[in-house]
Structures are given as C-alpha cells and as structure tokens.
Amino acid sequence: MYENFKTKVTLKKLSNELRLNTYWGSFPDTETFTSDLLGKYVTPEELPSFLQTLDICENGTQLCFTHTETNITKDDWRSKDYYFTIESNFEDFKQLLTEIVKSQSTDGTKCNLQTLLNQEVTFVAEAENNTIQSLLQMTVLNPTAVLTKYL
Q: What single-letter DSSP state applies at residue 37?
C-alpha cells in the first residue's frame, strides 16, 4: 500500500513539473499511433492530467489506465471502458517523464514526449456502462473466481 502511495505522489509531482517546464507546449507532430501505443489513448496536451489518473498496480511497479469511449444516440447513452497496462515498469516510465521535465530545448521536449507516447500498452479487459471498476475490485478480493467467471 505504501509503494502505491509513493508512486502516486511521484506521478503528481512530475505532472506539476511538466506544466512548469519552459518548453511545455512544444508538442511533437500529430502522428497516427497504433492501438498498442500509449499515444493512441492520450495526447501530449492531456499528459499532466493523465498522469494524475493512472492506477498503480503490482506494489507500485505497474501503471494501468482506463480509456472510455462514449456513444450517444437519440435516447441512449452507452459507455465502454477499456483497461490497459503500460508495458514499461514505473522506474523506466518515471525516467522518461524526468527527461521531458529536464529538457533544455523545444526539440528535446518534442523528442522525449514522442518516446514517452511510443510506450507499448497491453489491453487487459473491457466493460460496458462502468462495470469495469466493480470487476477490478472483485479481482483484488478474489482473482481466481473473477478470472474463471468473466474471462
């Protein structure tokens, strides 16, 4: 539990430092990211806020996030949540963020941001209408039963 808290505090600190970077706002050219890369689910502009919403797993070493797609039709509002893990461990991810914060030029910031957004992600689960959180909570309590029942 302490490691998760420590990781969350570190992410919040790096998020704030990103916003204070002189070269923040120097984003790489928009690139088409494939569905297995972080850049598909978060834009450079959203990165500081995104960092504060990351979930911490595996005793602070694994980062996870939920991507929500909403479909609104005439009388229907449906959302679908997709749960992903970021393939790099927290220490490597933190190093990439630190390099962005310490960038001393526009080109350095763009290059480091591009490297971060090219991190591979792995699809874990999906759920409709916000059922993923209850599924994840059940997994923590009894992973074998949930995996057997739902996956």
A: B
